[in-house]
Amino acid sequence: MSNTAKLELDGIAYTLPTLTGSENEKAVDVSALRATTGYITIDDGYGNTGSCTSNITFIDGDQGILRYRGIPIEELAEKSNFIETAYLIIYGTLPTQPQLKVFSDLLTDYQYLHEDMKYHFEGFPSGAHPMAILSSMINAASCFDEGLMNWKWGKNKLFDIYVAKLISQVRTIAAYSYRKSKGLPLIYPKQNYKYTANFLHMLFSMPYEDFDLKPEVVKALDLIFLLHADHEQNCSTSTVRMVASSQANLFASCAAGVCALWGPLHGGANQAVLEMLADIHNSGDDGSKFITAAKDKNSGKKLMGFGHRVYKNHDPRAKIIKRACDDVLSKLHITDPLLDIAKKLEETALKDPYFVERKLYPNVDFYSGIIMRAIGIPMEMFTVIFAIGRMPGWIANYKEIMEEPKSRIYRPRQIYTGKTTNHYIPMGERK
Ligand code: CMC
Fold it and tell me: Which atom of ligand 1 approaches the CA of 273 most closely?
C-alpha cells in the first residue's frame, strides 16, 4: 500500500505524505501544503483535522472504544481508581506500589491553598458560578508560586510537584468555590482521607461535625472522576494544548481548559441534562412531547446528553455510568422521577428514526447528572466535577506538547471573506 496521497490543484499534481497510527488510523500530512501549493485546508469544527500525534488516549467512535494508555475504560472502571488512573494517564504506565505512594503523598502535601487565597474567594459575589471561580482561582494560585510565575519548561525540575499541586488543589478550590457560593465556612482538607473522600469532606462537613462518608457515594464519585479523566482532542483539551503551545505555564493552560469545558455543548451538558429533565417533569410531560420538540430545529431544544462528535455507535462511558446509576440508586434506596424520565427518553430516542439515522446515542453526561444528584452533589457543581476528573488528561496533554521537540505554537489559518481594501471615512461624512 502506498504511503503517499496524490492531489491535483490547478492542473499540477502534488504528492503528500500519509501517516498511520498504532491503531491503524490514517492521515494525510498537509503540513507543507501551503508552502508548496499556496492552498490551505478548511475544516470547520475540525472534524477531519488531526492537530497532533498523541500516545495518551485512543477512541474508536464507530466501535465505542475508549482506552487510556491502551487499557480499556471498562477494565479501569472495574479494577482501578481515579488516582491510580490519573498516574497512568500522566506518566504512561500503571504505578508500582512505591510510585503510587510517592504520588499520593505529594497530593496530600500540596492539598492546602496559600492562606491568602481566601481573600480572593471573598471577592466573588454569592451566586457566582463555581466554574467561573474555579478557572479564576486556578490561575490565581499560580500567582502564589514563583516557579509558575517565571515558568520555563525544561529548566524546571519541579514538574511532578506542580502536577500533584494542580490535581490536589483543583479539588480544594472546587470545594471552596461551592462553600463560598453558599456562604458556608471553608473546610480544610484532612491528612488521612483519600482523594475523593477528602473532596466530599470539604464539600459537606461542618466545623466540628464531619460529613457521613458513605462508601457507595465515595465509590460512585471516584468512578465519575475516572470516566472523565481523558478523552483525546476534545474542545477543552485542545484549548489546553493551544494555550500550552505558547509556552504558558501549566496552571494558566489548565485554567483555560476549565473555561472551554463550561459550555453546554461540552462539560456543561451534565447540568443542562438535569435542567432539561426537571423542566420535563415540572411541565407534566413524560418525555414524549420533549422528544418531538428536540427533533424540530425551530424549537431551540436539543436532547441534551445525546450525540457526540466522535461516538457514532455508543459511548462506552455512558454504559458504565448507567449501570453505576442503577446500582447507587438502589443501594441508597432512592427513587427519582427524573431517572424514570431519562429512561423513557433513552428508550424512545433509540427507536426513533431521527436519532437512529443521525447516530445519536446517550453520552456520558446523560446519566452522570442523575448519579450526582442522588449522592447529593449540587447541580451547579456538576461541571466542576467533570473539570476535577479531566485534570489528569489536560496535564498529560500539556506534558506531551512540552516534551515534543518539534512542537510549534498553534496558529491556524483562515479564508478571509470580508471586504477588500476599504478606506477610513471621517465621522462627519459617514451615512
Ligand atoms: N438533539 C437533537 N438533535 C441533535 C442532537 C441532540 N442532542 N445532537 C445532534 N443533533 C442533530 C443535529 O441537529 C444535526 O442534525 P442535521 O444533520 O439534521 O442538521 C445532526 O444531529 C448532527 O449533529 P451535529 O450538531 O452536526 O454534531 P456535532 O458533532 O457538531 O455535535 C454535540 C456534537 C455533542 C455537540 C451534539 O450532539 C450536541 O449538541 N449534543 C447535546 C449536548 C451534549 O450532550 N453534549 C455533551 C457531549 S459529551 C461530553 C463531552 O465530551 O463534552
Answer: 44
* Residues in the chain where the model's pLDDT stays below 70: 1-2, 155-157
Of 262, 341, 273, the closest CA to residue 307 belongs to 273
Instruction: Give the nearest ligand 1 atom to 308 CA.
Output: 34
pLDDT at 376: 86
CA of 20 to the centre of ligand 1 (A): 28
- Which pLDDT does position 286 carry in this prediction? 86
Among the atoms of ligand 1, which is closest to the Cα of residue 307?
Answer: 37
In tens, the pLDDT along 119-170 reads 899 898 888 889 999 999 999 999 999 888 988 887 666 899 999 999 999 9
Catalytic residue at 308?
yes
Is residue 228 annotated as a catalytic residue, yes or no? Answer: no
Measured in Å, residue 203 CA sits from the centre of ligand 1 at 33
- Sorted by where each starts, the structural domains of the chain and their CATH numbers stand as 4-65 (2.20.28), 69-263 (1.10.580.10), 269-374 (1.10.230.10)
Cα–Cα dist 107/399, whole Å: 18
For 76-103, write each residue's pLDDT tens digit: 999 999 999 999 999 999 999 999 999 9
Q: What is the pTM of this model?
A: 0.92
**Dihedral sign (CA 105, 107, 108, 114):** positive
Residue having the nearest C-alpha atom to atom 11 of ligand 1? 358
Task: Tell me, using a 6 A CB cutoff, whether residue 369 lines ligand 1.
Answer: no
Check pocket membership of 305 for ligand 1, CB cut-off 6 A: yes
* Cell digits of residue 144: 502564589
Q: How many residues does the chain have?
A: 431
According to the model, what pLDDT value does residue 1 have?
Answer: 61
Closest protein CA for atom 17 of ligand 1: 358
First to last CA, the chain: 63
- The number of beta carbons lying within 10 Å of the beta carbon of residue 209 is 7
